[in-house]
Design goal:
Blueprint lengths: L3 E3 L3 E3 L2 E2 L3 E5 L9 H11 L3 E5 L2 H4 L14 H10 L3 E5 L30 H18 L10 E5 L11 H13 L6 E5 L5 H5 L5 E7 L3 H11 L7 E6 L16 H14 L1 E8 L10 E3 L3 E3 L18 H10 L19 E10 L4 H4 L3 E3 L14 E9 L2 E12 L1 E6 L2 E7 L7 E5 L4 E8 L16 E8 L2 E2 L3 E6 L19 E9 L5 E4 L5 E6 L2 E7 L6 E4 L7 E9 L7 E5 L9
Parallel strand pairs: 4-5, 4-11, 5-6, 6-7, 7-8, 8-9, 9-10, 10-11
Antiparallel strand pairs: 1-2, 2-3, 12-13, 14-25, 14-31, 15-24, 16-21, 16-24, 17-20, 17-22, 18-19, 18-21, 22-23, 25-30, 26-29, 26-31, 27-28, 27-30
Helix pairs in contact: 8-9
């Protein structure tokens, strides 16, 4: 039986052990490729893999747990073990990770008094129930019982959120009650009060997250520790993430990254964040919010050593050269990932959202508008309608507390689109028909994943709609989460400048990865054989979407594109050459 200890250094089976780890999030990679990405990690010279655990993936609906398929955390860890990789598991309820709501389930917000990441008893009750299920999957995979897990993390960057250390102690106690026996760690930025707020040194080793200034940050960590203990950068940021409307894809200097890596390994241990970023499939991108809303792109490439679709980069080779100074690298043979080039595909049919909405969503009526959470909907869009009377001038049409993006229609004709800070600005509208219907398509662009706005992330319409100074009542709501698109009725017409579903079919006699060019489209989502690949937006910086080969099938395939801006096209291009497409 192996042992892993934290003394003045890390010790594996009684011998000093330098952790050289890389982050791969199992939930951002299709499971068919887990072994490929983990093998690349080993071949770079890493001895450990780190992953967060995404609560919102495992309990997408309250009380219903999923540890299968792409959520088979146990299998991911076992593949790592088969490659002789150790594992750092970060099973915090909250993960940040630029993931939707920081990995917390959206249904928590149905409680209007919810205080996440706190000792608020209903929150802790949900965590307790979740941990009971989660640790059944992994407790026997700890090094203390012959598995590969050497460390587990308590919460995540908590020092940048709160100083409620009682919450941290309660989490640590829950972990131990559920069979956690490996050493515990915390990770925080080395700035301000973060280490003081987020550390519980009597039971967990403090580590730091940073991307540069290593000597300065290690000095801070060393002075903070209450005795001589290992120095570790739990998140060594070797790249960065992209947000929609960024001017370009974020990259970092290889030379600077190599320099900092050398400084880390001279004195301590490292975990590359990210080694391989992967993809925010579906609607699972998070957002940041400081002065304005910044939703993250579908691609989580992160300028990592292995890019979004599994190619090694110059950064990979540079890091490997440094790591080779500290360990002998024994490479494992790896099977290449194939690509296919289906080419140009013509449209089969299309239909306006308004002409199929009754077939794809069940109408819910209410006096005042309901939020997405009120509708038991986690992600996607909600379409609201209300009859607003006869022809007249409306001098004040306002949306109150609406998140995140609203497209406004009068009698199914587009009027205006409002986003974030613009949403509550008053509009003037001239109604000309005898009867008039107001329609509002509200998109959840991704709940905030970091900082102090997390408790206020309810989506859809939370406040209401004001018409000529008074709240409008009598609303109908249609949830659009696209969990089942088989009921789209393509027999209806397309209404110009309205949200539209377009269907493309094509036949394949071989399988592999491919890329869809979205340069000519406006905004929306792409669904491949029922699986939502992710969002696209003309605003950039991303203009292509990665389609993993395992999401395709031999024979007939179907792509459905939900385009919200009236820019639907009659053809799409699927290519094996991502380099020929504009944007990330």
């Amino acid at each position: 039986m192996s042992t892993f200890e934290i003394r003045e250094d890390f010790y594996l089976d009684g011998k000093p052990f330098k952790i050289i780890s890389g982050a791969i999030h199992y939930f951002r990679v299709v499971p068919e490729y887990w072994e490929h990405r983990l093998t690349l990690l080993k071949n770079m010279g890493c001895n450990t893999v780190e992953t967060y655990v995404a609560w919102n993936e495992h309990e997408a609906k309250e009380g219903q747990y999923d540890f299968s398929g792409g959520c088979d955390l146990r299998k991911f860890i076992q593949i790592a073990a088969s490659l002789e990789l150790k594992v750092i598991l970060r099973p915090s309820p909250y993960i940040c990770a630029e993931y939707e709501f920081g990995g917390l389930p959206a249904w928590l917000l149905k409680d209007r008094n919810m205080r996440v990441r706190s000792t608020y008893q209903p929150f802790m009750d949900y965590v307790t129930r979740y941990y009971h299920e989660l640790f059944k999957e992994v407790r026997d995979l700890q090094i203390t019982t012959g598995g590969p897990i050497i460390l587990m993390q308590v919460e995540n960057e908590f020092g940048g959120y709160s100083n409620d250390q009682e919450y941290l102690y309660q989490l640590a106690t829950l972990m131990k009650e559920n069979g956690v026996t490996v050493p515990l760690v915390t990770s925080d930025g080395p700035w301000g009060d973060m280490l003081e707020n987020g550390s519980i040194q009597d039971i967990a080793l403090p580590t730091v997250n940073c991307g540069s200034k290593i000597p300065e940050h290690f000095k801070r960590l060393e002075e903070f520790q209450n005795k001589k203990r290992p120095l570790m950068v739990m998140e060594y940021w070797i790249g960065w993430f992209d947000a929609w409307q960024d001017k370009e894809h974020h990259t970092t200097s290889i030379g600077d990254s190599v320099h900092s890596l050398k400084q880390i390994l001279q004195r301590g241990s490292v975990n590359f964040y990210m080694f391989h970023g992967g993809t925010n499939f579906g609607f699972m991108n998070g957002s940041n919010y400081y002065e304005k809303l910044l939703p993250d792109t579908t691609s989580y490439d992160y300028d990592a050593p292995v890019n979004e679709y599994g190619e090694t980069t110059e950064k990979y080779l540079a890091f490997k050269e440094v790591i080779a100074e500290y360990t002998k690298i024994t490479e494992v043979p790896i099977k290449p990932i194939l690509r296919i080039n289906p080419g140009v595909i013509k449209i089969d049919n299309s239909v306006s959202l308004f002409n199929t909405i009754e077939s794809i969503s069940q109408k819910v009526d209410s006096t005042y508008p309901l939020t997405m959470e009120d509708l038991d909907q986690n992600y996607g869009y909600v379409f609201y309608t209300s009859e607003i009377g006869t022809a007249r001038s409306i001098s004040d049409l306002r949306l109150i507390n609406v998140a995140d993006r609203a497209q406004i229609f009068i009698n199914q004709q587009w009027l205006e689109t409002k986003y974030d800070l613009e949403i509550e600005k008053s509009m003037e509208v001239e109604l000309v028909e005898k009867e008039n219907q107001l329609g509002i398509l509200v998109e959840n662009m991704g709940r905030v994943n970091y900082s102090v706005k997390m408790d206020s992330q309810r989506k859809g319409i939370s406040g209401g709609v004001v018409i000529n100074g008074a709240f409008q009542t009598s609303w109908s709501q249609y949830s659009l989460d696209f969990e089942n698109i088989d009921t789209i009725d393509f027999s209806g017409a397309v209404i110009p400048m309205s949200p539209t579903f377009s269907r493309f079919t094509f036949t394949l006699d071989s399988l592999g990865d491919t890329f869809i060019d979205m340069n000519a489209w406006g905004k929306g989502v792409v669904i491949v054989n029922g699986f939502t690949i992710g969002r696209y937006w003309k605003e950039g910086p991303q203009q292509k979407l990665y389609i993993p080969g395992p999401k395709l099938k031999l024979g007939e395939n179907e792509i459905i594109i939900f385009e919200t801006e009236g820019k639907s096209q009659t053809t799409i291009l699927l290519t094996d050459r991502p380099d020929i497409l504009n944007g990330l």
